[in-house]
Fold:
Amino acid sequence: MVSTTVWIVIAAVVVLFLIYLYNSLIRLRMRVNNAWSQIDVQLKRRYDLIPNLIEAVKGYMKHEKGVLENVTKMRASLVSGTMQDKAKASNQITEALKSIFAVAESYPQLKASENFKQLQEELSGTESKIAYARQFYNDSVMEYNQAIQVFPKNIFAKLFAFHQREFFETKGKERENVKVSF
Amino acid sequence: MSFYDEIGANKRKSYLLIFFFFGVVVCLGLLLGLLYGNSYGGLLVAAIVGVVYFLFSYYAGSSAILAMSRAKEATKPEYTQLINAVESLAIAAGLPMPKVYVIDDSALNAFATGRDPKHASITVTTGLLQKMNKLELEGVLAHEMSHIKNFDIRVMMLAAVMVGLTVLLSDFILRSFLWGGKGGNREHNQLSIIFIVLGLVLAILAPLVGELIKLAISRKREFLADASGAMLTRYPQGLADALQKIKGDPDPLVDTANKATAHLFISTPFRKKKGTSFLQNLFSTHPPLEERIRKLKGM
Structure:
């Protein structure tokens, strides 16, 4: 009789532990998904801002038509395709926008326009939000990928099809992580 | 220590603070009751006051602090850069967007308050907005965002509002004790005299203990918030530069700050005194800026 009770208690503890493990994996995966949707929101925001920018600079930049057309073309791939496509398009657009703003430096009238200034502020804000959203996403992915590889969570990961997630890659120099010690 | 441990510790400290506060209020109520010859009445009143005041400080504490500091909500056309920066850092920390407030003051300072990340706010002075560049401002905001993420804001808000009340209450008791002593028509037996003495000691000690609690909870967490802020921006130099500027601020006095809210700010909102003695260091709500800058530069 006593041994049955002991077994029941042990089984209960094990089950609770398994539930806890499973839920912790679910939580991590949800965070990755949330982090990804944050990137998506910001990419969409940039997608919406680009036509306004083109409209604002079109009248001034007659000689740089190629740059503008390029941006318009790349813009489409921001909201469709796989994550890698989006990451690639996002990096290219960042570069293209930089060159538009660099060219704008030589058009004093354009630079002075209130509309352009506002757009520049909005776009650079969105740019930094994309960077931070990517940072949060990649951190979340790292934690998640680690969790599904270590014992005993890896058994669950196999059992319930928790797959490794991709990082949102960037070309160029990534801001380095800082060392923090307490 | 991981940040999750830190969050757990902060929640425990919040409960402890509430418990401590409740104990003090009940003791003070008992004392008041004894003074007026009705100890049960005193207890009852104290319990009701305690509950009501706890509910007030938990749900309206941040509004009270913001109103006390005369902070106005920042809106978009005027403060686009500030709001964009806060939005970015909220994304980086994976938190909902906090409310953003501005205090019209030339001193360089900022604080965060609220009961949890969903009900949080960040306040900066206009001086800070004028004198900091984008990277420095991000550094300061990331520090505040970390206070939100680590639930520092809850402990610090409760400390601000509850300690504020305890001081007020014990002040009231001390005064009514003086008046009550003059009347002399109530008979006190020995027991109640002991209670009165105990309560009197408590009334004197309560604000002191409250102050010490505030110190204990606010000094270490400034370092921690600096560190986790640097994790958010991945650029410790930004906050280090900002602290350097704050250190050089010739007029750090925030007019609307007071003793109850001082520990909320990123840097002491009072005038600097020349030379820091050991005792001053012990009773200061903030660790020395030099030490914080040094740690940031070492990351």
The radius of gyration of chain A is 24 Å.
